[in-house]
Records
---
Amino acid sequence: MPQLQPGDFAPQLIWLAIIFTLFYIALSRLALPRIARVLADRKAKLDGDLSAAREAQAAADQQAQIYESELANAKAKGNGTIRSAREKLEAELNDKRRVLEAELAAKAAETENKVKAVLEKASSQMEAMTADVVSDIVKELAGIDVTENEVREALRQGSKE
Amino acid sequence: MIDWFISAAHAATQDGGHHGGGGFDPMHQFVINRYTPIELFGYDASFTNASLWMVIATTLVTAFLVFSTAGAKLVPGRLQSLGEISYEFVANMVRQNAGTSGMPYFPIIFTLFMFILSLNLLGMIPIPGLGQFTVTSHIIVTFALAAFVFVGVTLIGIFKHGFGFLKLFVPSGVPIALLPLISVIEIISYFTRPISLSVRLFANMMAGHTMLAVFGSFVVGLGVNVGLAAGGVPLIFMVLLMGLEILIAFLQAYVFAVLSCIYLSDSLHAGSH
């Protein structure tokens, strides 16, 4: 077996030690720090991007909140305006209606009074005219002179019976 | 694979077309060749084919990881993604097995994993002019790595806990009567760690490559001696085995790294379990 030639051990071990040491120095001083730096850079970049994204997200959330609160404010304000306008309108309408109703009631009362007056006048005139006519008829027919008051009395009694 | 064919074909033609056995050696691929003989303080420090394959593998991995982050983008491309995946794969492995207190040792675990993985995988690819060689199929290499891990985690444990590190061998919640037996078993299992760790990797790599070489010799042997179609049968097996070997190459690197993490975790958290 060529592996068990003791004469080959010395050069094998010596060159293994030399080359392995050089390899270790090359890797630990040159190659590995470069890869470590690349990986660290990537990690830093990713972490930075992630935190930036998180910040942007927070800012967006805040903006959304502001927007929503403003929207709610505007809505409330609009609702208030509409309500107050309606209330004002209703109050105005009520006032006008009340005035109108009062006017109408006054006019109706006035008219009633007028009608009542006219009716009273008409009925008193009618009585007078009836009494007149009755006294004239009585005078013509019975030749009895009756006063107007007597006729009225009689008429009233007659209308009672 | 080509190299196995070449060596097998070489063996086959050396026999004059008759494969009589003995001409082809599936272990030949593990032979160490000295390219540049060097002597250092009386020791043989020759630059060998194993050294060259280690240089190629580590250079490729370093270049890949450095270029993958050149002009790194926030959204990674294919190459950058692959580099990041390998980083995070090992980082998660360390975090899950050794906890966050194990993270300071991430670079050494990553180096171990990449070293073994690149050598395992590169062993699957023949390079023109170089042939094919798997450094991790040598027990001395895997044992050195395992011993390094073993000594390292033991020193970390002693440094962190002092004598408290010995609690590792006295699991809590064990009846007093059983404690001597359990402690002995724990101590034995602790000291066999470097052996199991190194032999597992070495044996897997050697067995796989030997099997591929044997099947390669079948392809050439049957193809030359019986007929071209006859060589196709072991060739199909070989293709399937290549897939399996690539899986094993990854799996053994992963197992080595995970076990290193677990041993590290034992040292870091000794006495707290």
---
Amino acid sequence: MTFVLYLINGVSLGSIYAIIALGYTMVYGIAKMLNFAHGDVIMVGAYVCFFAMSSFRLPPIIVVPLAAGVCAALGALIEAFAYRPLRQAGSLAVLITAIGVSYLLQNTALLLWKSNPRVFTSIVGTDVIKISGLPITYVTIITILTCVAIMAGLTIFTGKTKMGKAMRACAEDKNAASLMGINVNVTISLTFAIGSSLAAIAGALLCSAYPTLSPATGSMPGIKAFTAAVFGGIGSIPGAMLGGVLLGIIEIFAKAYISTQLSDAIVFAVLIIVLLVKPAGLLGKHAHEKV
Amino acid sequence: MPVILKAENINVYYGAIHAVKDVSFHVNEGEIVTLIGANGAGKSTILKTVSGLLGSRGGSISFLGENISSVPPHKIVESGLAQVPEGRAVFLQMTVEENLEMGGFTRPKSGGRTRLERVFTRFPRLKERRCQLAGTLSGGEQQMLAIGRALMSEPRLLMMDEPSMGLAPILVEQIFEIINDLNRSGSTILLVEQNAQMALSIADRGYVLENGEIIKSAPADKLLEDDDVKKAYLGG
């Protein structure tokens, strides 16, 4: 029975990684860059939730969309000011800039909100329900359901809507997309906005499950979610989902059955093994191009 | 026949390389105009400049009387200028139908079905493969898709960048027939080609490019008879 419980907790933690990984993978898909500031957007989202709930006493149903909105704007701003001027620059310059933006966000948070950790009040309470004898928290259930809903929403968005298809067209060939009349800049901004709003949702869920919040809160989950995106095949939306969930399960199992201290090492060891066997990640594909 | 596109003294640089030098040309409504020249003569660069992907230093480009020199590419498409890009550049990971939909991105949703059916009537092969990923099509089919996609915006001027590139001779003929056919049904076409023989045989007028400069411009039948052109581009 404990096995099932660990599995459910693993899926739940993995769902958070998956939601974050979607941001990495979508941005990589369209802008071909690793946005290392993405993890810190999670932290900003969590702080927005924290203050909205503690200072303004807003209900979670307003708090989470608010945080998503703030982070969407933040993501679009970061893209416009930090990354867009480097669109034609080498990938190393962009990567360093992303690391710089990450430090900027963390240190601004440190300045504004100080380093002492805050106790985050869960957005869905801390109730535990018993499902066939297993104690499962509401947060766990809400996290898994949110993840499924986001996946379904993104699948419909990219597969059925005009804007979603334009996003895929830009991801494949920006020049050809602009020759179709697609505004590439707007599409890239929108991708950053969507990814960042997902990060805010992940932040709210993460801090509800692990209720301490500090300016460094986003960095480790950010790195793990990045790993999940690579694990699943960076650029692939289902890949990010699969990678995230698997990573969560592996982490919880490693903690439960092997060693808490070694769990992160085990997670990364699995990543290395997968990449040795399948360098493009689990669902990653090398595009076949006809010349 | 009114002038639909007029480029005057365009100059394009790739870093320090002066790729297009003081090029001027125009296209009249209803014509097929071709730019011919060897690989690297600057033909594709000129098309990319007209469609806004590259910028010209000085000079001007006007389309339907509007100066489009500093208009971004997605706005130029909206004003009625479509391009079949070099190497086709269809979206390989999208289906045939999605590719066509992208071609009509700037047009209102209401007429979408009609436009799609019109393209399918012209290219029945695309209709058969509407749900297939473009990456699974043959080269010739991809070229048809690239042309169909450009037609989805119902352009006033269609620019084609080397539509015969990399195709088997029988397909090349087919593509040129399609171009001729499009023109007969009212499309104005600016065609860039290395296959000078074929291009001139269907064009009304031609410009000959060499090292980024226009060295000759004349009606197509005159160019076909021109000794220099024959020697350089028509194999004797």
